[in-house]
Amino acid sequence: MNKYKQQPSSSCRMCGLIFLLLTSGLVSAAELPQARPELVGMSSDRLQRIDDYFQRFVDAGQISGAVSLVARRGKVVHHSAVGWKYREENIPMTTDTIFTLMSMTKPIVSTALMMLFEEGYFRLDDPISDWIPEYKDHGVLVSDGARSSVVPEARPVTFRHVLTHTSGLTLDPQDKGLSREEIAWITNNGEGFDTLGERVARAAKIPGAFHPGDEWQYGSSTDYVAVLVEKISGQSIDEFLRERIFEPLGMHDTHYYVPPEKVDRVAAVYRPVAGGPSELMRPPAVTPARDYFAGVAGLNGTSSDYFRYAQLMLNGGELDGVRLLGTKTVELMIQNHTGDKDVYVRGPGYGFGLGFGVLTEPEKSLDFMSRGGYGWGGAYGTLYWADPEEELLGLMFIQLPGHAPLNIRQRYTNVVTQAIVD
Prior knowledge:
The chain is α+β, with helices and mostly antiparallel strands and 422 residues long. It has helices at 13-23, 26-31, 44-59, 105-118, 159-164, 180-186, 196-202, 221-233, 237-249, 303-314, 327-333, 408-417, and strands spanning 65-72, 75-86, 91-92, 99-100, 139-143, 148-152, 269-273, 276-282, 300-301, 318-319, 322-323, 350-352, 357-359, 374-377, 383-387, 392-397. A hairpin with a 5-residue loop joins strand 14 (374-377) and strand 15 (383-387).
C-alpha cells in the first residue's frame, strides 16, 4: 500500500486541523499579524478552497504536501499545511516547515544590493567593472550563421543589467567557443571554488551571450548581484543578509545552510513521474556549511519568514517599525525596466523590474492579478506574489522540480484572488 494514500480524508479535515494547531508552527503562527478574513474584505468560506485545491494534488500523489499563506492589508487571513513533509515516514506537513527556496533567493539578494544603492555606492547605469574589474572590456559572442567570433561589448554591463537579467553573463563556459584549457581554468579544473567571488572573477573570460541590454535571459545575473553586495559591503552575502535583513525582520529560520538541529523541520523533495505519483528525490537533510553563497539560489526558509520579507516590500520598505528601503526605492524596483522583452519564465504579460517579474498586461497573463502585481518563484515549486492594488499577498510552498505541467502555481493565483469579496 502506498503511504501517500493514508492522507486523512476531507471527512476528518477538522481532526487534521486540530492536530496541526497542536503540533505545528504554533509559535511562528502566533507571531504573524492575523485577522478574521471578513475584516479585510475576504471570505472565510472561499479561503477554504485553497486547502481543497492543494489536497487534490496530494490525494492524486502528484505532490507530497504544501504550505500556503494569504495576507491582505497586512493581516494574515490564511496559513495552512496539507499533506506530508516526508511522505515515506508519514510525517505531516506543518506551517513551520523549512523549504528549499531556490530562485526565491533572487528577490532578497536584489533587495540587499538596492539597500546599498540607497547609501550612494552606485548608480543603476554604472558599470559593474567599477567593483568587479575583471569585467572591464568584456567581450560578446556573435554569430553570422557560418562562424562565431568575440567582439567588444556595445556597452558595459551595468548594475541595472544584472538586476534585470539583461546582462548576457553566464558562469557556464560550455559552448562559448572556448578552448579546453580555457574551460579548465574557468572551472578550476572542474574542482569548483570556495567562494562565489572567485568563480565570478574567472568567468570574466566567458563571452556574453548578447550585447548588454539587448535581450532578457534568465541565468547567472543574480550571482553577480550577490558578488557586488560582497564587494561594496565588505561582507559575505550570507553575513549581509543575516545582519541587515533577516535579524531586523525576525526571519530566524532563513539560512543558506540549515543548522543540523532544524533538520526535522526540513521538507523532503520529490520528483514527478509521468502517469503516477511523485517519488522521493531527496529526504529531509542539511548540507554542511561552507563559504560558497550563491545569488541565484541557495536560501532555505519558512512561509512565516518569507511573509515578513514580502510584507515589508508590499508596505513600501517597512515592517513593524523596521525600515530597510525607502518607499521610492521599492516603487523603482517593482516597475518594468525591460520594455517589451520576453520574460519567458513568467509567461505573457510580464516585464521585469529590479529583482521581480512585473505584471504589465494582465489581460495577456495566465496569472489572476491586477496590473502592477509582482513576485517570483523557485524551481522546486515555491511561489511569492504581491498585488499592490488589492494589498494582497499569496505564498505557496511545495517541493517538486518539474512541476510546470501541473500548472499548480498559476492556478493558485485564481484560488486566492477569488476569495476577495469587497
